[in-house]
Specification:
Keywords: Hydrolase. The chain is α/β, with parallel strands linked by helices and 430 residues long. 39% of the residues lie in helices and 17% in strands. It has 2 domains: 3-89, no CATH class; 90-430, HAD superfamily/HAD-like (Rossmann fold, 3-Layer(aba) Sandwich). The chain has an 8-stranded mixed β-sheet with strand order 5-4-3-2-1-10-11-12, with helices on both faces. A 4-stranded antiparallel β-sheet has the order 6-7-9-8, with helices on one face. Helix 1 (3-10) crosses helix 3 (19-39), helix 3 (19-39) packs across helix 5 (62-72) and helix 12 (241-250) runs antiparallel to helix 13 (279-293). Bound molecules: the ligand O=P(O)(O)OC[C@H]1O[C@H](O[C@H]2O[C@H](CO)[C@@H](O)[C@H](O)[C@H]2O)[C@H](O)[C@@H](O)[C@@H]1O.
Length: 430
């Protein structure tokens, strides 16, 4: 065992997960190492005598070393401490699966998942953010047992083209465009307003679309259609004015990309190359976007993962979308329902916050790093994998590398199947 092994072991492997911390901790390791070198002089065995080999007489020195480190190492790596404290506040949903299972006992679990960064890894080209076949199978298995919704900033068509599972609810464009599973019943006109106890509300125009298409459940962003319609009536090209202006303004910035996510003019401005992700380039770009938006007071700007998102400034977000799906499932006033939301981005915080406010449900943040969050639990990024034993093959257990989100979904499915082995059909949607 090397000096650094001792240090990392003491750090519970966290340093390995934290590139920044690793750098900081190497300093700590160095400090420990030099204190060990001084060890002999302090009456402890010198590290050369001790580390990696039993001392004279066969006595292992590792415990001496660890004790020496503990006693003489006044400073732990702050980043590691911070990560450990964060993990105590937001423990791993896998490590705490038993607690989650206790909370779910006797309740109807409803699953909500974000797409980018949760089910699919973040990649530079948004058009190539595919989910793996294994992840798709895991989501499908979950959807067979629990009502399941995808809540995403992407437009419905795009996310559906990636996921392709007709049994899910999809809340696209940050929940501004919600569709039920193909088997769900269309809602009677007026249902949504009744469910939300809404008379004319700023975020629901009197003529918004509701239940008049078999699968579209709600499009609150249609409030903005008159604005766009007016423009389109005057000049069709003007409907795309904001989109065009953004494309135009940002075309000189290498790596910048404007995406059209439907509701409405568009939505994401992304820096696709590592070299342009610097503050010096990012800030002027953000200024350009803000300048364009001054002409569009009905749109607002928010920031996601390396992305500037533009949305209608209406009171609607992923939290509202989750509430809407729960209501449309008939679960609104029920205490025997447990919504579980897994997401990675700032916009998912609206959903975590909503669950916290309801005092019902479990938020799980997917993240590599400690982050301010309203989620209760955490899971690792989809690019981070861990070994898991999946199945017996050729008389031995097969050890596979799978992302923790997928592993969590597997555990949920196993848990449900263990509890009700006959539960293989999709849950009935009311
Ligand atoms: O709500 P989400 O499902 O998380 O979607 C929000 C945005 O996700 C996409 O951008 C993110 O993923 C891209 C592909 O991995 C990545 O290139 C980008 O940096 C991320 O921010 C999507 O492109 C946006 O349109 C969505 O708004």
């Amino acid at each position: 065992m090397t000096n650094q092994d001792v240090v990392f072991q003491d750090m519970g492997g966290i340093a390995a997960a934290l590139p920044g911390a690793l750098f900081a901790c190497r300093g700590a390791a160095g400090a420990v190492s030099s204190s060990l070198r001084r060890g002999g002089a302090y009456g402890l065995p010198a590290d050369d005598e001790c580390l990696g080999a039993p001392a004279a007489g066969g006595r292992a020195c590792t415990s001496w070393v660890v004790e020496a480190i503990r006693a003489s190492s006044p400073t732990r790596c702050p980043a590691v401490d911070e990560h450990a404290a964060w993990t105590r506040r937001h423990p791993s949903a896998l490590g705490s699966f038993d607690d989650i299972a206790v909370a779910a006992k006797g309740k109807k679990v409803v699953m909500f998942m974000d797409y980018d960064g949760t089910l699919a890894p973040i990649v530079t080209d948004p058009d190539r953010a595919f989910m793996s076949a294994e992840m798709r199978a895991a989501v499908r298995d979950v959807a067979k047992l629990f009502p399941t919704a995808l809540v995403t900033g992407r437009c419905l068509e795009k996310v559906y083209s990636f996921v392709g599972l007709s049994e899910l609810y999809y809340a696209g464009s940050h929940g501004m465009d919600i569709k039920g599973p193909s088997s769900s019943k269309p809602m009677k006109p007026g249902t949504i307003r009744t469910l939300f106890r809404l008379t004319p509300q700023p975020f629901l125009p009197p003529n918004f679309q509701e239940g008049n298409n078999k699968t579209v459940l709600l499009q609150p962003a249609r409030e903005f259609l008159p604005v766009i319609d007016k423009r389109t009536r005057v000049d069709y090209m003007a409907a795309l004015q904001a989109y065009r202006a953004l494309v135009d303004k940002t075309k000189a910035t290498p790596g910048a990309r404007v995406e059209n996510n439907k509701f409405l003019p568009l939505c994401a401005l992304q820096m696709r190359r590592r070299e342009v992700m610097t503050l010096q380039r990012w800030s002027p770009l953000a200024e350009q976007v803000k300048a364009v938006l001054r002409d569009f007071p009905e749109l607002k700007l928010s920031e996601g993962r390396k992305v500037l998102e533009i949305r209608p400034s209406i009171m609607w977000d992923k939290g509202r979308a989750v509430e809407f799906v729960l209501k449309s499932l008939g679960f609104d006033d029920r205490t025997d329902v447990l919504p579980v939301y897994i997401g990675d981005d700032r916009t998912d915080e609206d959903a975590f916050k909503m669950l916290r406010k309801r005092g019902q449900g479990i938020g799980i943040l997917v993240s590599k790093f400690p982050k301010e969050t309203d989620a209760s639990y955490s899971l690792k990024d989809p690019t981070e994998v861990r070994f898991t034993y999946l199945a017996w093959q050729n008389e031995s257990l097969t050890k596979l590398l799978i992302p923790s989100v997928m592993e969590f979904l597997h555990q949920l499915v196993h848990w449900k199947r263990r509890r009700s082995p006959s539960a293989t059909r999709r849950p009935r949607v009311q």
